[in-house]
Write a structure and sequence with these properties.
Oligomer: heterodimer
Largest sheet of chain A: 5 strands, parallel
Structural class of chain B: alpha+beta
Strand order of the largest sheet of chain A: 2-1-3-6-7
Largest interface: A-B, 44 and 47 residues
Number of strands of chain A: 14
Radius of gyration of chain A: 18 Å
Strand content of chain B: 15-25%
Strand order of the largest sheet of chain B: 1-2-5-4-3
Helix content of chain B: 40-55%
Order of helices and strands of chain A: EHEHEEEHEHEHEEEEHEHHEE
Shape of chain A: globular
Number of helices of chain A: 8
Radius of gyration of chain B: 49 Å
């Protein structure tokens, strides 16, 4: 899958590129408005990550251009601006998602997957990992073709693990994914443990291998290899 | 003390001694003039007698008035001398002293020495004096009173633009970025004052805007470096060879970034609330907001086995910005969930005009007055920023609602009044 990263900060560009590359994406990058505009016109991408504040222009104008040309690419705005107005403007222009800096790369990955999944029309909407099959749209999970009844949070947790498989995700990242920005208000780390324990139990009942490794109490790794 | 009062007091302070001085001065002046007049009259009478003595010499004594105070008699003193003197004679009929002015003249006519004494009562002059003085005092009194009234009325009129300016300044609120317009008028000083104030307010507004922009930009700019650190920490965590110590240190960095970032976001939100940047108000159904938020935390409520009761005596609708309404209720609910122990109780009660949320919990470890202060938090909650309730307070203040807190029978209760 091809991704275009439009971000002017070189360090952040490098990190995101590296991360997505490891996950098997083809990543190209643009560091200002003109480059971005040129690349989006010349090539097709599955997903475009665009920062709003760019040298020589505004990222929102890239979104506009893409929409005018009926581009099929998924668009995720990555911005330091957290204001609701910017979010609304971005999404109104046709962006698929809006991620506020500083975001976690696992979270970015999960959003990219979600956007690409929504955009693909080839019927390939399920994610299969060994004995586990997930159909995100239906929010259903099967283990060895047997349906597993999960709560909303357990499902979100499993999907997040699977999208970020073979990678360490910290409890902070999971908490933010499950309860949003203000998860730190709730001492949420204890609750992750409860959800994970229930998830493991439900998967094990259907004969699923326990893929989740605990990493020194700081996070987890959904190991499939 | 009002300016008018102060002015009048100052006038009084100066005018009373002045009036007293002028009174005494004119009293003596008039008295002197009147005495001169009397002296002149008796001197003329004396001259007449002196002349008549040339033709009609007097033997021994001749009385010139029936009260025997004016007379001519032969004297032994020969040198010519005129003296004036004041005398007081007791009048038996009137039973009082009567003042007289007398002239004593030693004169020699046709070789005979005479003493001429002519006395004249000064009653008339005294009455004239009294009359003059009381009418003078009356005029002064009238003038003073008229002056004060005039001054008071005039001050009120003259200073009106000044009081207008003051009342306009009182309404000024830097948060609302209001432009004050002062009326122009024909008093140069007031125009200059208003002009200076206008300049000052424009500068304040401009500086305030700059500062606001700076705060916002600074907060935004900080998020990108934080994103870089976060990405790098996350990358470091992926290495298989990390030991526990290294992992914990990476986690500590990650926690710090998270704290810094949410601190940044929260302060930005607080600044926006205080700058009144949430303008669009709508009718918000409190019940819907409460239900949505509780659903979002349903899993946590279940895990903590919290017995949560919602009592809606009214479908309270509130006119406020929907986002702020959500943030307000969310912070209060989060706060209650956080500080309720396992198997605890939370009650949410919505009445016609107020909303309260109560939860069972341990007594506060901070002072009640500090509850809504920024960065004040329960010592046990290390993770929390201590900004949740100050956000609540800012929103409450923005809309002019009232919130109070009480702790009774191990229930913490927050109540929002006059929603």
């Amino acid at each position: 899958m091809k991704i275009l990263l439009i971000e002017d900060e070189p360090e952040l560009r490098k990190s995101i590129k590296q991360f997505l590359f490891q996950d098997g994406y083809l990543v190209e990058s643009a560091n200002d408005f003109l480059q971005a505009s040129e690349k989006t016109e010349d090539y097709e991408y599955d997903c475009i990550l665009v920062d709003i504040t760019l040298p020589k222009g505004n990222g929102l104008d890239i979104v506009k251009q893409l929409k005018e040309r009926n581009s099929k690419a998924g668009i995720i705005i990555i911005s330091a601006k957290n204001s609701i107005e910017d979010k609304i403007i971005g999404l109104d222009l046709g962006a698929d998602d809006y991620l506020v800096k500083p975001f976690d790369l696992s979270e970015l990955n999960s959003r990219i997957r979600a956007v690409i999944r929504r955009k693909s029309f080839d019927g390939n909407k399920s994610i299969i990992i060994n004995e586990i099959t997930i159909i995100p749209e239906e929010r259903s999970v099967k283990v060895n073709d047997e349906l597993v009844q999960l709560t909303a949070k357990e499902f979100d947790l499993l999907l997040f693990f699977i999208i970020n498989k073979n990678r360490v995700v910290s409890k902070n990242t999971i908490a933010e994914h499950l309860w949003g920005d203000d998860s730190d208000q709730m001492d949420s780390h204890d609750f992750i443990y409860v959800h994970l324990r229930n998830l493991r139990k439900k998967l094990a009942e259907k004969g699923c291998t326990d893929y989740v490794q605990t990493i020194y109490g700081i996070g987890y790794n959904f190991k499939t290899n | 003390m009002k300016l008018i009062t102060k002015t009048i007091l100052n006038y009084l302070l100066v005018s009373i001694p002045l009036i007293l001085f002028a009174g005494f001065f004119s009293y003596y002046l008039i008295k002197h003039e009147l005495r001169d007049g009397v002296d002149e009259t008796i001197f003329k009478d004396n001259k007449q007698i002196e002349n008549s003595l040339k033709d009609y010499p007097v033997k021994d004594i001749k009385y010139l008035s029936h009260d025997s105070l004016s007379f001519v008699r032969i004297s032994s003193i020969s040198n010519k001398q005129i003296t004036y003197l004041d005398t007081s004679v007791f009048d038996r009929n009137e039973n009082e002293f009567v003042n007289y002015r007398s002239i004593r003249n030693n004169v020699t006519v046709n070789g005979i020495n005479y003493l001429i004494v002519i006395s004249k009562t000064t009653l008339e002059e005294e009455e004239l004096m009294e009359g003059l003085f009381s009418s003078f005092a009356l005029v002064i009194l009238f003038l003073v009173v008229a002056f004060f009234i005039m001054n008071w009325l005039l001050s009120k009129k003259l200073w009106k633009p000044f009081y207008n300016t003051i009342s306009k300044l009182g309404e000024y609120d830097v948060n609302k970025n209001t432009q004050l317009s002062f009326d122009a008028h024909n008093v140069t000083e007031f125009n200059e004052l208003n002009h200076a104030l206008n300049n000052m307010i424009n500068k304040i507004n401009r500086d305030y805007l700059h500062q606001k922009e700076f705060t916002e930009n600074a907060s935004h700019e900080m998020q990108t470096p934080l994103a870089i650190i976060k990405a790098n920490v996350s990358a470091l965590m992926q290495s298989e060879s990390r030991n526990e110590l290294e992992m914990n240190e990476l986690l500590s960095i990650e926690n710090t970034i998270k704290k810094l970032s949410s601190l940044n976001k929260t302060l930005l939100l607080l600044a926006k609330i205080e700058n009144n940047q949430f303008q669009k108000n709508e009718k918000v159904c409190l019940k819907t907001v409460i239900n949505t938020i509780i659903n979002q935390y349903a899993d946590i409520i279940e895990i903590k086995k919290i017995d949560i009761k919602q009592i809606f005596n009214n479908d309270l609708y509130v006119l406020m910005n929907p986002l702020l309404a959500e943030i307000l209720i969310r912070n209060l609910i989060q706060n209650a969930i956080k500080y309720t122990d396992i198997n605890g109780i939370i009650n949410i009660i919505v009445n016609k005009k107020d909303f309260s949320i109560e939860n069972v919990g341990k007594p506060l470890t901070i002072k009640e007055d500090d509850l809504f202060q920024r960065f004040k938090k329960d010592s046990e909650s290390i993770e929390s920023l201590g900004l949740g309730l100050s956000i609540v307070k800012s929103i409450i203040d923005l809309y002019g609602f009232k919130i109070d807190y009480k702790y009774l029978n191990s229930f913490h209760t927050f109540t929002i009044h006059s929603f």
